[in-house]
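[09:14] KT: can someone run the structure on this one? pasting the chain below
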Amino acid sequence: MSTKRNIALALAIVFAVGLHAIAHEMTVLGTVSGIEAARIQVKTGKEKTGVAPTWYPIDEKTKTRDSKVIKLEDAKIKVNERVVVLVDHPDKGPIKTKEIRLGTQ
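[09:31] RB: done, structure tokens below
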């Protein structure tokens, strides 16, 4: 291959990896400190004094309890329950909660 072609290929790979890095998933570990129909509040223990725990949006596609998509009321999420929340930060638009992992009941 020519040098120019190698450089172009390398730049294309760097660009593709860079775009993937912009949109990423985040795992939040903590306890439920609040639950509402459209959001869940998770206390991680890393909050600064006087700062409330973060709220994460919930919609009908959010998986809850045992990686199944079930209605929030059927998941029976309780305050102070241990939780792992998988959040997606797309490059455009609001964050989305993909999954709420809880212990089995």
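[09:33] KT: thanks! The two ends are 59 Å apart (CA to CA).
[09:34] RB: yep, looked fine to me
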